[in-house]
Specification:
Layout: E1 5-10, H1 12-15, H2 17-22, E2 27-29, H3 36-45, E3 51-56, E4 63-76, E5 100-115, H4 116-120, E6 139-142, H5 144-153
Parallel strand pairs: 1-3
Antiparallel strand pairs: 1-6, 2-5, 3-4, 4-5
The protein binds a DNA duplex (12 and 12 nucleotides) through residues 9, 11, 35-37, 57-59, 62, 116, 133-136, 138.
DNA sequence: GCCAACGTTGGC
DNA sequence: GCCAACGTTGGC
């Protein structure tokens, strides 16, 4: 089975890598994804053992700050069932779930922040959706070659 | 805080 | 099914 690679964005003001690192099992359900493309990848393509770049977005220095692993495949996002939650969606139900989570576990933090700015300037990474103009996907695939290359930047 | 780019919604 | 209006994302 081929292990795949991903990048997932999170806003450090909302849920940063420090938050994940502070959790008992350094594990969290990746909830609140409300974009169909991102959902489809989480629901249909992410498999146990896949690895993930943890990316900080909407902050002073956007970039990759850690590596995580998929430790549980897709299941319904219960925040969508909770009217009190900001992620509530009346079109979602337990019987007919619309939104899903995967569970991710922190593998390690990177020694430094590999910034969006340097990735944008890197000829080896021009194909990454991350550096393409206007891309707003919060979950995106990373090729094996890109994964390896980014790790050499650390 | 601005705004480009994109996704979603809803009237027709 | 089209598309204008609106909302959101997220870099800068």
């Amino acid at each position: 089975m081929t292990r795949r690679y991903w990048l997932m964005k999170s806003e450090p003001d909302v849920f940063g890598i420090e938050t994940l690192a502070a959790l008992p099992a350094q594990t969290t359900a990746w909830d609140g994804v409300r974009n169909y493309q991102a959902r489809n990848m989480m629901r249909d393509e992410m498999k146990l053992g896949d690895r993930v770049f943890f990316y900080h977005s909407n902050c002073a220095e956007p970039g990759i700050v850690g590596i995580a692993e998929i430790v549980r495949e897709a299941e319904p996002d219960i925040t969508a069932e909770n009217p009190e939650s900001e992620y509530f969606d009346p079109k979602h139900s337990a019987e007919n779930p619309r939104w899903f989570v995967v569970e991710v576990k922190l593998e390690r933090r990177l020694k430094r922040n590999i910034t969006l700015a340097e990735m944008k300037d890197d000829p080896a990474l021009v194909e990454m959706p991350l550096v393409r103009r206007g891309n707003r996907l919060s979950v995106m695939p990373v090729s094996a070659a890109e994964w390896q290359h980014i790790l050499t930047l650390e």
